[in-house]
Amino acid sequence: MSNEQQELKERVLAELEQKVIDPELGVDIVNLGLVYEIHLDHENNVTVEMTLTAMGCPLAGTIVNDVKNSLSELQEIGEIKDVEVDIVWNPPWEKSRMSRYAKLALGVADN
């Protein structure tokens, strides 16, 4: 992966961290550990590989739309093209994936 693509992945993650908040938990999806990977192809199409805290999450559609909307600015300035969101269940999400910030915000003990 080129330096430019690595920097673009980091910008995508930063956008998600700033703009996509889990509506039930009030913490962004990056710090919750819900984003597993950002995939970029050679045309800068983005696939966000992520999970949710639970299968059957009633807010799945909202979160997917928020992910796409949060990256629209990068699309408008031509840094990325299409955005897809791939919800995966393997590996399953667990609290250990959360950042220290998320654990503090939610009062989760760091074991």
Automatic annotation (TrEMBL):
Classification via InterPro entries: Fe-S_Maturation_MIP18 (IPR052339), FSCA_dom_sf (IPR034904), MIP18-like (IPR002744)
Superkingdom of this protein's organism: Bacteria
Keyword Transferase: yes
Molecular-function GO terms, alphabetical: methyltransferase activity
Keywords on record: Methyltransferase, Transferase
GO biological process: methylation
Keyword Transferase: yes
Domain MIP18 family-like: 10-80
Full protein name: DNA methyltransferase
